[in-house]
Design a protein that fits this description.
Helix content is 32%, strand content 20%. By secondary structure, the protein is of the alpha/beta class.
């Protein structure tokens, strides 16, 4: 009798379904990665639940109430004159520049670029920086 075996096992692996899945995953990650903005900076002014004053000995105060207004030790400065004014205030202090502290009080509505520029100017002058926080009212929470 001439009986044939009807089921012969194939040792081949079909890659077409796997390539379809990988292609769909590649398209998914390409589309979702374009929606993410890696240059975005979400900065918020820190807040504190305690009303403590910073322990700074004769620090330099810098207030930034808006993007165009800078008040260094009570005198108004422009964005162009601010780096030189910070450097002269730090150099005018009798202590070494590493021991001079700048107390930064910045409004929460000030743009992130202004904050970065101010902090960069303070770092260039070689001084330390303390950021004054906005006090939260614990009764509201």
């Amino acid at each position: 009798m001439g009986l044939k075996k009807g089921s012969k096992v194939s040792a081949e692996f079909n890659m077409s379904s796997l390539t379809d899945i990988i292609f769909l995953l590649l398209i998914f990650f390409m589309l979702t990665s374009s929606l993410i903005n890696p240059r975005a900076i979400n900065l918020k002014v820190p807040s504190s639940s305690q009303n403590k004053k910073p322990t700074v000995k004769k620090g330099i105060t810098l207030k930034v109430p808006s993007d165009e207004q800078f008040i260094l030790n009570g005198s108004n400065q422009t964005s162009e004159s601010l780096p030189k004014a910070i450097a002269s205030a730090v150099n005018g202090d009798p202590r070494p520049a590493e021991e001079v502290t700048v107390v930064l009080e910045i409004n929460e509505n000030v743009s992130a670029q202004v904050l970065v520029d101010v902090v960069s100017s303070i770092n260039d002058a070689g001084a330390k920086m303390v950021m004054k926080t906005k006090v939260r009212d614990n009764k509201l929470r």
